[in-house]
Amino acid sequence: MNAEETPAGETPAGERRALFLERGSYRRRRLMDAARILPVAGAILLILPLLWHSGGAESGPGPATDAIYVFAVWVLLIAGAAILSRYLTVPRAEPPRAREP
Amino acid sequence: MDKRVLLVEDEPNILEAIRFILSRDGWTVLTHSDGTTAVEAVARAAPDVLVLDVMLPGRSGFDILRSLRADGTSAKLPILVLTAKGQDRDRAMAEEAGATRFMTKPFANAEILQSLSDLYAGAQG
Amino acid sequence: MPFNLLLAIALVYVAALFLIAFLADRRAQRGQGRWLSSPLVYTLSLSVYCTAWTFYGAVGYAARSGLEYLTIYLGPTLVFAGWWLILRKLVRVGRTQRITSIADLISSRYGKSTLLGVMVTLLAVLGTTPYIALQLQSVALSLGVFALPGTTGWVAADPTATGLWVAAGLAAFTILFGTRNLDANERHPGVVMAIAVEAVVKLVALIALGIFVVWGIGGGLSQTLARIDAAAHPGWELAGGRWAGLTFTSAAAILCLPRMFQVMVVENADEAHLAIAGWAFPLYLMLISLFVLPIAAMGLERLPDGANPDLFVLTLPLAEGQGALATLAFLGGFSSATSMVIVAAIALSTMVSNHIVMPLYLARRPAGATMSGDVRAAVLRARRLSIAGVLLLGYLYYRMSGGSEALASIGLISFVGVAQVLPALMGGLFWRGATRTGAAAGLGIGFAVWVYALFLPSFGPEGLISAGVLADGPAGLHWLRPQALFGIVGLDPVIHALVWSMLLNVGVFCVVSLASFPSPLERLQGAQMVNVFERTLGARGWSHGSAEAEDLLTMAQRILGPSEARALFAEEARSQGKADGLPDTTPEFLGRLERELSGSVGAATAHAMVAQITGSAAVQVEDLLRVADEAQQIMEYSSRLEAQSDELRRTAKALRESNAKLTAISAQKDAFLSQISHELRTPMTSIRAFSEILRDHGLTVGERERYAGIVHDEAIRLTRLLDDLLDLSVLENAQVSLNLAEVRLVDLIDRAVDAASAVPGATRVEVRRDRDAEAVSLVTDADRLTQVFINLIGNAYKYCDAASPVLSVEVVADAETIRADVIDNGPGIPPGARDIVFEKFSRLGEPGAAGGAGLGLAICREIAHRLGGRIAYLPEREGGAFRVMLPRGLTRPNDDAAGGGRAVSGAR
After folding, report:
1. Smallest Cβ distance to C67: which of A43, A54, A63?
2. Residue C373 has what DSSP assignment?
3. Which of C137, C260, C468, C755 has its CA 20 to 30 A from that of A101?
4. Could you report the per-residue pLDDT of C852-861, keeping only the tens digit for each?
5. What are the residue boundaries of the structural domains of chain C, listed by start?
6. C293: three-class secondary structure by DSSP
């Protein structure tokens, strides 16, 4: 049963609970996705400085600007990981169908 | 002719009401209000008809009913079972235990009179 | 800064670390130190990643190559930020399979392969030795800076002697705290705690220096940024290949470095710590690297041209006359070096002893002779020798390389080396098709390329590879030039080695894995590790057992220690349903025993040892596999079946349970409705019967009055019952609002006794009270509390059938609570009914009970609860005895469902 597509207004009280649970685990799945995407996104962001220096040694901003950029990405990664780990470690039974890649 | 009825009931007011109604109609009314000794009381009183409440102190009316039906002398005794619980399940249990008739409290006075004379007539006829 | 003073400070610091490690170990042994295994300590212990290379080398690296030093921290940052992806699985596998090292993991995953264990161990030793040398060198160098005050370059006082002393001291510490006992889970709380403290020291030192550089002499942030731009020179531009390649290398290294595996997986006490470390460790790395560039820029600006940038961290504060800061920096560097060496030595010694020394030791003994020697002692001895050996190797490398290399390049060589384990590791964790042959082939070729293209050339043109080979290839084979394999020239040597080694490693690993067929044990282990989150079963390696339990116990005692081993066997015997004696050697038990043993001696060794006793005497894992072959296949199949039927059973059980619960609730509801029905119909019966009688004519006045009286009484009874029900429902739904006021208990009891005197039988009861004791005041709801006493006293009046009934009220009060006992000398509550006396309608069905609906005590309980207290039956007292406990100052009522329903005034 795909409860996500059931209009909330038409479900009897008993199924509303199921809908809620499905939503909870749906959210959690997306959080897991986010946790998987985070390092990839970080890697892409960290490769970017290479692009604006691809014109040669003289092109692009100075090392100080590069450093500020890299540290900003760093802080973002830390914050992202902190938020995700906070929500991902909320104790909860794994649904039996949850398969790891 | 002496019509003897034994009332086994623990609520004093209900007992008094039934006693009044029945004795006005010519019944000899004997009473008993304890569950544990009810079977002996029936043997002693040897009534023509028995009125038995279900919720009794000491022993359930259904239980008493089963003992009475197992006993040879009272196996055929007409018994009216009274209950205040009034659920279908209780009626079924009463029939299973051997009640001749079943009535739910509260009842109309005429109702209990009619039931008892039916039972009495059935037993005599 | 006098050199001797510095030495003294360093020695005191070392002594403090010994003390910390000692105390932490002792705490952990007593089971006290919960804080020992906190997420904070875990995160800090991970900082063993930041070695002297970070501390001194990063500044030198930044001075030479600009931002590139960041790659070494960005890789681990990405790995940790993505902890959900890889680390979570790594830690889970490590914990469930009781993995003791990275070599043990690879060996276990690929069918407990001895070959792979040895390969990874050798690679780790080879890759770590230069790194340990680097740490020794850094300590020697830094001491050298202080030895000749005023010098800005490093001048060795006697670096070789310093290196030897440091190595010896570290060996002592590691042996002392790393091999105190053979813990089944291989944890070292003392070492971890010391590492955590050192982590703080190095962070504080580097940040203090950074603050001094930026704000103390640098003139603030914007000037520092300008200075960084000014310091840029041609070596500083970002090189795409190195930037990406080194980030990858460091990411691989943090997963594969033996010391990281030790702190990350083996010392992990709780998987939840990993989630915290997922962001906290990147934060630590960021803070550590934050001031590296400013320090490098400032050093380049202020220190003379020939100054070694690797020592800016020390020479800069010294040149600015900041002796204390320099000392702090020295301690930071010292911490970085020592923590790395200690953990690396522990990790390597575990690997060397479990995968090389012990298998050899066992193989050299004839079958069965294991019992004659004390294996436990042998393992410990092997560990200690390994630690000494590892440090000796590091020292020799340091002597040989002459300390001439820049720190950064040694670190990178090491990283590329350990990264060779990555394909086997990732394949092992995520690909069930990865085979032992594939892993061995990939690892072998990667290892070979690394040695040939990077490790050997690192000794310099006239080191282990001649300049001629470097320039023209071996035997004139041009395409085999170590730093230009297959004719690819112009690549940076590190990147060149990385690309070729990883390409060949991954390629060969995949192709050979695809082409080969795994043994059953490999497949089993592979399934368990790859699917570790689906079901966590123990590793099952035993299909049948003819082993004698006694022999196994003897062996287990020697490895695990006598008490642990006996406890393990006794527990197993119990679980097999034997009251005493030894357990049967079932396959499950053998598997479990092997897992326990593998915590101490590694999976392959444990397997071999159990094998010796169980009669399959050969030590070779291959032999064992042949024996177990068919059974393994059956087992893999049956364990899959088992998993399915387990799931079915769980579902069925859950369904049964919820069904039982529903049935119980519905039965409760039925019983309650039936009781209510009875309670309502009983008075109604009298009322109806007598109303009909009253309607008839011919009654005497006396009769009429009497029957009207009965109708009236019964109507009141009915009303009271409805009131009670309503009360109870209000109380139970917490819709009650309390009128709190300060009252005297004696007044309430007066009122209650008055009100209860209406109960039939009240007059014959003698009431004994102690008005002085009752004269205590409390803040509560007077009406509600009075109701409790009315019910209790009324009950006593009703049920006390003693010849001369006595009711006593006993009150005891202290500063916080009041205890009021209401006791009669009647029969009391029969033992069987005491549990339900406070339930609704509990009176029913009890002989001798009369009047009331049986709701009184239920109401009392609800009120007492709302008033912040409780009520209990006192079975030990003679007669019927109830105790009411109340707080003297009720500040907040027990309002479980506050905000739920509408409030009903409690005043009645």
Report:
1. A63
2. S
3. C260
4. 446 778 888 8
5. 3-422, 436-517, 540-619, 632-713, 735-905
6. helix
- Top pLDDT among C632 and B82 is at B82
C689 Cβ under 8 Å from any chain B Cβ: yes
End-to-end CA distance of chain A: 23
The pTM of the full predicted model, rounded to 2 decimals, is 0.57
C666 at B interface, C-beta within 8 A: no
Q: In the complex, which subunits touch C with 3 or more CB pairs below 8 angstroms?
A: A, B
User: Both tokens of residue C91?
Assistant: 């830690």
Tell whether C690 lies on the interface with B, counting CB pairs under 8 A: yes
The Cα C49–Cα C289 span in angstroms is: 13
Cβ atoms of residues C226 and A64 within 8 Å? yes
Identity of the amino acid at C126: L
CB atoms within 10 A of CB C908: 10
Six-digit token pair at C253? 């290294």
Chain A residues touching C286 at Cβ < 8 A: 71, 74-75, 78
**pLDDT tens-digit profile of C194-217?**
888 888 998 999 899 889 888 888
Chains in touch with A (≥3 Cβ pairs < 8 A): C
Contact C238 A50 (CB under 8 A): yes
CATH fold for the domain made of C735-905: Heat Shock Protein 90 (3.30.565)
Tokens linked to C246: 């080194």
- Which tens digits make up the pLDDT trace of A13-65? 333 344 445 566 777 778 888 888 888 888 888 888 777 766 555 556 777 78
Is C240 in contact with A50 (Cβ distance < 8 A)? yes
Q: For domain C3-422, is the CATH number 3.90.930.12?
A: no
Specify the CATH number for the domain of residue B13: 3.40.50.2300
Count the domains in chain B.
1
> Across the interface, which of C682, C693, C847 has its CB nearest the CB of B57?
C847
What is the tens place of the pLDDT at every residue in C287-316?
Answer: 988 888 888 888 888 877 777 788 888 888
Domain span at residue B88?
A: 3-124
